[in-house]
Amino acid sequence: SSTVVWFRRDLRVTDHPALLEAAGRADRALGLFVLDPRLLEASGQPRVEFLHRCLRTLDEKLGGRLMIAVGDPVDVVPRVARSVGAESVHVSADFGPYGRERDEAVGEKVELVRVGSPYAVAPGRVLKNDGTPYRVFTPFSRAWREHGWRAPANTNKSTVDWMTPEKTERLPEGDGLPDVTRLWRTFRDERLPDYADHRDRPDLDRTSRFSAFLKWGVVHPRTLLADLGSDEGSKAFRNELAWREFYADVLWHNPSSARENLDKRFDRIHLDDDRERFAAWCEGRTGYPFVDAGMRQLLAEGWMHNRVRMVVASFLVKDLHLPWWWGARHFMRHLVDGDLASNQHNWQWAAGSGTDAAPYFRIFNPVTQGEKFDPDGTYVRRYVPELRDVKGKQVHRPTDPIVDHAHERQEALARFGAIK
Ligand code: FAD
After folding, report:
1. Is 285 marked within a binding site?
2. Atom of ligand 1 at shortest range from CA of 241
3. Centroid of chain to Cα 344
4. Its family (predicted)?
5. Which residue owns the Cα nearest ligand 1 atom 37?
6. I need a surface site. Which of 118, 221, 369, 382 has the fewest CB within 10 A?
7. Residue 268: how many CB atoms within 10 A of its CB?
C-alpha cells in the first residue's frame, strides 16, 4: 500500500511523529511539498530562498525523491494522492488560521491524518483550571512546563520507502542548509552557558539564530528541549521557546488577532498615516542610529536581533504613531523567520494591544536602549556605514532625527490616555 507524506512546516526526517505514523500504515510513501502561491505572495525573497534551501536539503534526505508541486493544495494534494493510489495523506497538524482552513478543505477530499505539530505542546492544550486559555505569559509558561512534552520520536526505527515522483517542479540551483545538528551542538556547548547574560546584546550576537529552522520545522523544539538542562542558560532558552508556544496558543484561540487588535480599546487609538516617515523607518533613515542599524540589518540579512526588533517596533508605534500592522507586514516580507504567530503577537506586544502587553507608558528610548545593549556602538557601526568613524557610545547620538523622541513620547501618552 502507498501513502503521501505532505510536508509543510516540518521539513525534516528526524523526530517526526507523522512520518512514523505513515511508515506504520503503508509500505511506500510519496514525499510531497506544495508551493502555494497564496503563501508565497506574502513572503519576500529572503524567506522564499530560505525555503528553497530547506527543500533542497529535505530532497537530499529523501534520496532525491521529494515531489514539489505548485498550486492550491486543496486541488493538488488530493490529485497527487489519487495518482499514486494513496488512501490517506499524513501531515503534522497546522495551527495557523490559513492552514487550519486549508486542511479542513483538503480533509473533505482525502483522509488527512494529522500527527504532531510544530510545537512541544500543541496550541489549545494548556488551559487554566477553569478551562479557559491563558492570557498572560508567566502563568502560561509554568503550566506549559508542568504539562510537559513527549520525548523525541525515534524516526530511525522505521525508515520510509520513498516513492519516485513521476514529475516534479525544479527548484532554482542553489545551496541546501548547513548541518543543523552540528550548529545546535556548537551553540549548546559554546553559547548556551552565557545565553542568559548575552541574549540581549546585539553587538555580541550570541543567540542561536534557530528561528528560521524552527519556523520551517527543520528542527522540532522538542528535540532542542530534550537537550537542555537546569542551568541558567538552559532555563532562559526554554523560556524563549515558551514564548513561541505561547503566541501560537494565543493565535489559535484568537485567529483574528493576526490582523486585529486583541485589546479592542486600541481600535479607537488615534493613528497617523505618514507614508514618508514609514519609508524612512523601513529603510533605516530615522536618524536614530540603533533603530537604523536594526532596520538595515533586516534588509541586509533577513534577520534582526530580538532586542532591536523590540526597539524598532516601539519606535514605529510610539514615536511615529503608525499602525503596528504596517510594521508587521514589512517584517513578514523581509524576515527569513517570519512567522505569523510570533510576528503579529510580538508586534501587538510592542503596540500595547496584545496579550501580556508592555504597559503603554513604558516607551523605549531608542538612544538609551542603544547605550545599554550596544555599549561600545559595535552593532551600530556594523550596519550604519556612515557612522563607522564615530567612536564608542557617541555613535548612538541621533543625527538629523525625523522626530523628537521626548516630544513623541508625550504625544503617545496623550493618545493612549484618550482611549484608556
Ligand atoms: P534565540 O534567542 O536563540 O531564541 C530561541 C528561539 O526562541 C527562537 O529561535 C524563537 O523560536 C524563540 N523566541 C525567542 N524570542 C521569542 C519571542 N519574543 N517570541 C516568540 N518566540 C521567540 N520570531 C520569529 O520566529 N518569527 C517572527 O516573525 C518574529 N517576529 C518578531 C517581531 C517583533 C516585533 C519582535 C519584537 C520579535 C519577533 N520575533 C519573531 C521573536 C524574536 O525576535 C526571534 O524569535 C529571535 O530574535 C530569533 O533569533 P534567535 O533564533 O537567535 O533567538
Report:
1. no
2. 7
3. 10
4. Belongs to the DNA photolyase family.
5. 346
6. 382
7. 10
Cα of 328 to ligand 1 centre, how many Å? 13
Q: Where are the alpha helices (DSSP H) in 108-175?
A: 137-147
210 annotated as belonging to a binding site for a ligand = yes
208 is in an annotated binding site: yes
DSSP 134: P
List, chain by chain if needed, residues with CB within 6 Å of any ligand 1 atom: 199, 207-211, 214-215, 240-241, 243-244, 247, 306, 309-310, 313, 331, 335, 337-339, 342-343, 346-347, 350
Domain 2-117 CATH assignment equals 3.40.50.1820: no
Grid coordinates in use for 255? Answer: 485567529
Residue 228 to residue 346: CA distance in whole angstroms = 25
Instruction: Cite the residue boundaries of each domain of the chain with CATH code 3.40.50.620.
Output: 2-117
Is 211 a known ligand-binding residue? yes
What does the pLDDT read at residue 420? 84
Superfamily, domain 264-419 = DNA Cyclobutane Dipyrimidine Photolyase, subunit A, domain 3 (1.10.579.10)
- Decide if pLDDT at 403 tops 80: yes
* 375-402 tens-digit pLDDT: 999 999 999 999 999 999 999 999 999 9
- The confidence score (pLDDT) of residue 50 equals 96
Per-residue DSSP letters for 350-400?
HHT-STTPPPTT----HHHHHHHHSTTSHHHHHH-GGGTTS-GGGGGS-SS
Domain(s) of CATH 1.10.579.10: residues in the chain: 264-419
pLDDT at 156 over 80: no
CA 242 to ligand 1 center in whole angstroms = 11
Backbone phi and psi for residue 33, each to the nearest 5 degrees, phi listed first: -130, 135
Residue 49 marked ligand-binding = no
Compute the average pLDDT of residues 91-101.
96
Q: What is the mean pLDDT of residues 192-205?
A: 97
What is the best residue among 180, 197, 209, 211 to mutate for testing ligand 1's pocket, by most ligand atoms within 8 Å of CB?
211
* Global model pTM greater than 0.80: yes
Mean pLDDT of 84-94: 96
Res. 358: pLDDT tops 70: no
Sign, CA torsion 96/97/100/105:
negative
